[in-house]
Amino acid sequence: MVYVLDTSAILSGKIFGGNTATSPKVLNEIKPKGHSWRLLEYMKSIGMKVISPPEESLEIVKETAEKTGDIANLSDTDLEILALAYHLKATLLTDDYSMQNVARELKIDYMPIVEEGIKKKIEWIYVCSSCGKIYEKYVEECIICGGKIKRRASNKAKHL
Fold first, then answer.
1. pLDDT single digits (tens) 71-128
2. ∠67-27-98 over CA atoms, to 5°?
3. Is there a single domain that holds both residue 22 and residue 96?
């Protein structure tokens, strides 16, 4: 079995059996000194590979994250990790609920590290905190009043 680790999986200090991989952007999130760096170096020394996902996989992940409404909560690193898990047909190891939600939509197996994991498939909508305008996709600010946009679960959430 192949596992793709996000930053939190590496920093958990847990050792995962099987083949492990992570993306180059994860390396940039871990400072080159201290305990976190030692955990990363240890994982690399026991065989964790650092692999960049293909651009096509990254585009599929971005489109899916747009569809689920999670795109606003995912960093470039999160997107790269999801794309790598998708490309390798691997199990994603993460506690990030937005990543788990997108992984579920893409039919990527995932396992939480410390947290319990998601219980529902969530679809998000975006609402202006000033005028209440609802958006299906993420926007930076309200086109009506310029207000701040907040994410809210739609009524379409389904128990898993």
1. 988 999 999 999 999 999 999 999 998 999 999 999 999 999 876 655 666 777 889 9
2. 25
3. yes
18 and 84, same domain (yes or no): yes
DSSP calls for 83-125 = HHHHHHTPEEE---HHHHHHHHHTT--EE-SSS----EE--EE
pTM score > 0.85 for this model? no
83, exposed or middle or buried, with CB in 10 Å at 0-12, 13-18, 19+? Answer: buried
Instruction: Work out the burial of residue 110: count CB atoms within 10 Å of its CB; fewer than 13 is exposed, 13-18 middle, 19 or more buried.
Output: buried
16 and 82 in a common domain: yes
